Amino acid sequence: VNYLVDKQVIIGYPDGTLGSNVTLDRASAATIITKALGIEIDPKDKPSFTDSQDHWGAPYIAAAEKAGIVKG
């Protein structure tokens, strides 16, 4: 976990916690995975999932989808 924090793959919450007891949603998982794998993110990209078009994590979900990591 410390390695991922040092590499800014995971950042956590403003109060300094990582939210280890919080359910990981698709956007958060896609963000962590794409950052960990060094996948390039285009901030303008949108995933094919209709429920994620305007979500904050849309570019990360789109990148994970393009890489074959997530499917809808």
Description:
The structure is a single chain. This protein is mainly α and 72 residues long. It has one domain. The chain is built from three helices and no strands. The model has no long low-confidence stretch (mean pLDDT 91).
Write the layout of secondary structure elements.
Blueprint: H1 2-6, H2 26-37, H3 58-66
Q: What keywords describe this structure?
A:
single chain, globular, 36% helix, 72 residues, mainly alpha
Mean pLDDT: 91
Q: Share of helix among residues?
A: 25-40%
Radius of gyration computed on alpha carbons: 12 Å
Overall shape: globular
Query: Main beta sheet: strand number and arrangement?
Result: none
Strand content: under 5%
- The domain tally reads 1
Quick gist of this model?
This protein is mainly α. The chain is built from 3 helices and no strands.
